Amino acid sequence: MKTLEWENNKLKLIDQRQLPDNLVYIYCENYKDVIVAIKDMAVRGAPAIGVAAAFGMALADIEGVDLNKAANEIKSARPTAVNLFWAVDRVLNSQNPLDEALKMYEEDMATNRAIGKFGSQVIDDGDTILTHCNAGALACVDYGTALGVIRAARDAGKNINVICDETRPRGQGASLSVWEMQQENIPVKLIPDVASGYLMSQGMIDKVVIGADRIAKGGVVNKVGSFMVALAAKQHDIPFYVAAPYSTFDHEISIFDTEIEERDGDEVRYYGGARICPEGTEVINPAFDITPKEFITGIITEKGIIDPI
To answer: Which end of the chain is more exposed for a tag (fewer CB within 10 A), N or C?
Structure first.
């Protein structure tokens, strides 16, 4: 099942806001539709955002919109995921925007398969793997990065179990990663975000594999809560891996200079449509956090497993 496809000069996307209850597709007919889909998280996950942005540029070209103007608007959709900027610049510097977007689409699938192949080598038969947020097929064109490692390990004949934390406030672990694992018939359990340290202390987790929205000098930016998982893993000597393509690397800056997106406080104030705090409560709602490199065992890429930069 592909997260996004180019169909009849439109970008077809799974609306991830509707999962796990409803599998709904939306169609982006122009580049502004793509911007809205990225901002509103109908499409999310660094690789998927990148490819969607590439097709947004292609739609702008078809519309006859100035591509520099479109590039600036698309880049403003979400400030943290480096794949967004990489993809827009790559299309901007190409001869044919649509051909370049289609090429990136195919490359993403091949890249994720390669990440899975390398990553499966660090997974042992019988492992229980904790993952945070959703770095699966839904975060990419297909297959996934962190969940691609899990899929590849299963396909290699290894008996594995998966634990997904819920990943508040938007619950991508609960709604998306659990759903993906169930679709694949991979044994999976859901835990509250606050339970991962306890499970590690009880010997119930063997490895952690997460994705990344940006990898830069000094560490990794990923969904908020990743650092807490890394701290607990370090305390209990549990290997902590990050699975991501080279397009997620930003060699130009320190990870600590990354702009961290601050999202609407209502994502925290409300759960399942019901307000869970006193009316008017002030909220701090960062979408991402920073895991310093000393907490990371290795980064699983399409070219092999490497040390953090």
So the answer is: N
Q: Is 213 a catalytic residue?
A: yes
Q: What is the pLDDT of residue 101?
A: 97
Encoded amino acid at 8, one letter: N
Q: How many CA atoms lie within 13 A of 305 on its CB side?
A: 17
Give the chain's domains with CATH numbers.
4-111 (1.20.120.420), 122-306 (3.40.50.10470)
Whether 112 contacts 148, CB under 8 Å: yes
Average pLDDT (224-246) is 98
Instruction: Name the CA radius of gyration of the chain, rounded.
Output: 19
pLDDT score of 272: 87
- Tell me the average pLDDT across 195-199: 98
Marked catalytic residue, from 127, 142, 193, 213: 213
pLDDT band at 1, cuts 50/70/90?
A: confident
Distance CA 81, CA 50 (A): 8
Query: Apex CA 188: angle with CA 155 and CA 215, to 5°?
Result: 75
